[in-house]
Amino acid sequence: MDTGHASFTRARLCEQRNPGREVVFHLNPSTIKIGKKAEYREQPTQAAKNASRPSFLGTRAVDLQFSLLLDSALKAGRSVMIEIEQLLDWMNPTDTSRRGSSPSPPVLMFNWGEFRVGRPRQFLGLLTSVDATCTMFTPTGAPTRAEVSLALKAAPEPAKGTNPTSGGVSARHAHQVIAGESLATIAHGTYGDAGRWRAIAEINGIDDPMRLPVGTRLLLPDHADLGSR
User: Fold this and answer.
1) What is the DSSP letter of 192?
2) Spatial separation of the C-alpha atoms in residues 161 and 168, rounded to whole Å
3) Which of 20, 202, 15, 162 has the alpha carbon at shortest distance from 92?
4) pLDDT score recorded for residue 77
5) Does this chain's domain 9-36+54-157 share its CATH topology with 163-229?
6) How far apart are CA 24 and CA 5, in angstroms?
7) Which residue would you say has higher pLDDT here, 32 or 20?
8) Which CATH superfamily is domain 163-229 in?
9) What confidence category does residue 224 fall into, taking pLDDT thresholds of 50, 70 and 90?
10) Residues facing residue 154 across a β-bridge
11) Helix, strand, or coil here: 215?
12) Fewer beta carbons under 10 A from the terminal one: N or C of the chain?
């Protein structure tokens, strides 16, 4: 695992609809397992010398599995249960979905610099497994180190013109805020129109555009989807 460098990029998980709700990995994963399965149906043929050709049924979503180390020595000595509880909570249906007919957990973004899986710039998926083993504690019982194994399943990409986050806008790109940026400068650099900052604020649930912490990840809708904004 990498421990630190001037160009060190920390891996993180955050909610697609609320990028500010995140878990930043204390140490980046040393291995990532990427998997995908195809489904076939085999039909036995009586008295045939050779097996019949399997019928292709389709493919399953891409799976992502990795392990990480949470160590409070890198986070001012506080308990790592803050991160563990957030990971566990992401396996529960969101409050908004509970009020509807189809309760579902939030779609998460796995963001780690140049790591790419498929066409999206970030891996979008649902957290399917969390396994945390606490290995170090304070004298009062607070866990200060934990080995965590995670598994995610890729979320289906929304159809063009639809988006799970807001009124039909397709959030196709992600942007990480750097020092000196504002919603207006990001909108100007992305769309050539600083006035589009309102669309960015709306899709990311930003109430105060003047408070934009460095490192915040924003979802940026396609230019073609901003006509109604």
Assistant:
1) S
2) 5
3) 15
4) 61
5) no
6) 16
7) 32
8) LysM domain (3.10.350.10)
9) low
10) 125
11) coil
12) N
